[in-house]
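Case study.
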Amino acid sequence: MRIIDIREDLARSRSRKYATRPLRKIEKLVVHHSGTRGGTPKSFAWYHVHARGWPGIGYHYVISPDGVVFKTNALTTVSYHARGANLGGVGICLVGDFNRSEPTDAQMEALTELLGLLLHHHPGAEIVLHREVKGSRTSCPGLKFPAEGLPR
Ligand SMILES: [Zn+2]
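After joint prediction, the assembly is written out as follows.
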């Protein structure tokens, strides 16, 4: 698995800043899809900052269809990706709309490896789908996402 740290290359707000947390607060690894056919961490960051008015990109990691993992926020950043689970959540977004199609094998392999790595460092954390977060009203990460393939 290749992780590319592109935090410095992403749009972020000049005036707003995300809160931070100690790493011990991490308790949920939240799996998302982008809900789009394409897109890149840069385009998602631009949208989150300029259309939604957020301090920066909402996700901590973005996984492209070819299985490359992009690191987009520090794990200490309390970014916005799953209302009700942001404080202790790590947001992992797979690029694609999995209500229409399935993630690629490369994406699922990278996700499994990334989750394994994160669980190694944060053993108490729970893997959840965005739609499983209490109070959420979304199908994210899509009805065709193969949830049975997750290491949980
Ligand atoms: Zn989501």
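Observations recorded in class. The chain is about 20% helix and 20% strand. The chain has one domain: 3-9+21-145. We will return to this complex in the next lecture.
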